[in-house]
């Protein structure tokens, strides 16, 4: 999750099909709710007909980053590198069940024991809990039951790219 920095699912297997990804995403949505958008690379399991059909059925927007531009999904690339360096490259698995057990423990540690600077040095799970509480808590001055946005949209033009101006 690029907001909470949580690892929401890690599925060790010998291969993963688009149908399997769709099943895992459906299960994840049942646990965590529907995302506004999914962003991914162009892996074959993520561009499969099964995923395209799943997106149409669930009405979830899927954004594919440009081929050869992994930094368009930089948080995920950073996470993948961390998992590879700390876990995959350092662990010898006896079998798939062993891999699943160890990965579940690593994900739990990642989500619940490691503070992240991008989250104000909270753990991903702690930040998610705080975020959920903030969303659910009604505003003191608002009598309505509608959820309020946590962050306001940026004013028009704030995110416009501008060329740097040389000074000196």
UniProtKB/TrEMBL annotation:
Gene3D superfamilies xrefs: Ribonuclease H-like superfamily/Ribonuclease H (3.30.420.10)
Cross-referenced SUPFAM superfamilies: Ribonuclease H-like
Domain called Integrase catalytic: residue spans: 1-132
Region Disordered, residue ranges: 142-168
GO biological process terms held by the UniProt record: DNA integration
InterPro entries: Integrase_cat-core, RNaseH-like_sf, RNaseH_sf
Pfam families: rve_3 (PF13683)
Protein origin, superkingdom: Bacteria
Gene Ontology MF term list: nucleic acid binding
Name of this chain's protein: Transposase
Native species: Frigidibacter albus
């Amino acid at each position: 999750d690029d907001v909470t920095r949580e690892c929401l699912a890690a599925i060790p297997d010998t291969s993963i099909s688009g149908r399997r990804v769709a099943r895992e995403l459906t299960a994840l949505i049942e646990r965590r709710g529907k995302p506004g958008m999914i962003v991914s690379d162009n892996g074959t399991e993520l561009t499969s007909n099964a995923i395209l059909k799943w997106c149409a059925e669930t009405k979830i927007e899927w954004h594919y980053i440009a081929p050869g531009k992994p930094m368009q999904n930089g948080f995920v690339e950073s996470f993948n590198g961390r998992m590879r360096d700390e876990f995959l490259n350092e662990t010898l698995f006896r079998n798939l069940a062993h891999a699943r057990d160890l990965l579940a423990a690593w994900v739990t540690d990642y989500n619940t024991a490691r503070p992240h600077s991008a989250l104000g040095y909270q753990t991903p799970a702690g930040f998610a809990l705080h975020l959920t509480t903030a969303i659910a808590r009604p505003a003191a001055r608002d009598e309505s039951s509608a959820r309020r946005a946590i962050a306001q949209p940026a004013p028009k033009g704030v995110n416009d790219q501008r060329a740097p101006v040389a000074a000196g």
